[in-house]
Write a structure and sequence with these properties.
The chain has 200 residues and is α+β, with helices and mostly antiparallel strands. It has a domain of 127 residues: Alpha-Beta Plaits. Helix content is 18%, strand content 12%. The protein has five helices and five strands; from the N terminus they run H-E-H-E-E-H-E-E-H-H. The strands form two sheets. Strands 2-3-5 form a three-stranded antiparallel sheet. The chain has a two-stranded antiparallel sheet with strand order 1-4. It starts with 5 loop residues before the first helix and ends in a 34-residue tail after the last helix. Bound molecules: iron/sulfur cluster (SF4) (2 copies). One iron/sulfur cluster binds next to helix 2.
Length: 200
């Protein structure tokens, strides 16, 4: 290109752009699906009988680079059981003013209790509303699940419970409902007590 055209060369880029196909999404009227592995808001998952997968271990909170998670654990009792095993998360909060949706907490969780959904509409104009509580984060009850506290319904021993729960087996007395896979964003854990290791 001749030297004397240099001052107007940049306009060529603008001019070319005018004839390209517009790719504007009319959000919020038009919403496109996210990529399947998009990191949206979190979810605390349940076993097939409704008990919570979270054991209140705080590993997610320790892994979080933004210090966005607060967990308090408590002991289960036979009369009041929220999760299989000894402990459950009595308080669970995620501060979405801090969270950068990096997913490190999900990687740290040993029971696959914590996963991320594809939901991204979590903006709010109130600081309080952006601190999500356990009740907001817990997965909805699916067919055949009961609201905790209640006894373990999947097996007599913890090993049975975790193996049957991982396989999506229906709680006892509800076999007619067949196997139910977990929520779409949740992968079944390969973990059983005593074997250690992360969920995947
Ligand atoms: S996604 Fe990242 S920033 Fe958000 S709570 Fe998890 S570890 Fe913390
Ligand atoms: S979500 Fe997972 S890592 Fe976090 S406290 Fe519960 S079991 Fe532990």
């Amino acid at each position: 290109m001749p030297e004397f055209l240099n001052p107007v060369k940049g306009f060529g880029v603008t001019f070319r752009q005018m004839f390209r196909k517009v790719d504007t999404v009319q959000y919020p009227e038009e919403k496109r699906p996210t990529a399947p592995r998009f990191h949206g808001r979190h979810q605390l998952n349940r076993w097939p009988d409704g008990l919570e997968k979270c054991i209140g271990c705080e590993l997610c909170a320790w892994a979080c680079p933004a210090d966005a998670i607060y967990v308090e654990g408590a002991d289960n009792t036979e009369e009041e059981r929220y999760s299989p095993g000894e402990r459950y998360g009595v308080v669970y909060q995620i501060n979405y003013l801090r969270c950068i949706l990096c997913g490190l907490c999900v990687e740290a969780c040993p029971t696959r209790a914590l996963t991320m959904t594809n939901e991204y509409e979590i903006a709010d104009d109130s600081r309080e509303n952006l601190i999500w509580t356990k009740e907001q984060l817990l997965a909805p009850l699916e067919s055949g699940m009961e609201v905790p506290p209640h006894p373990m319904r999947l097996g007599d021993t913890e090993r049975d419970y975790y193996q049957l729960g991982s396989a999506g087996v229906a709680p006892r007395g509800r076999e007619d409902q067949g196997a139910r896979p977990g929520p779409a964003t949740e992968s079944g854990p390969d973990w059983t007590p005593g074997e250690g290791g992360a969920g995947q």
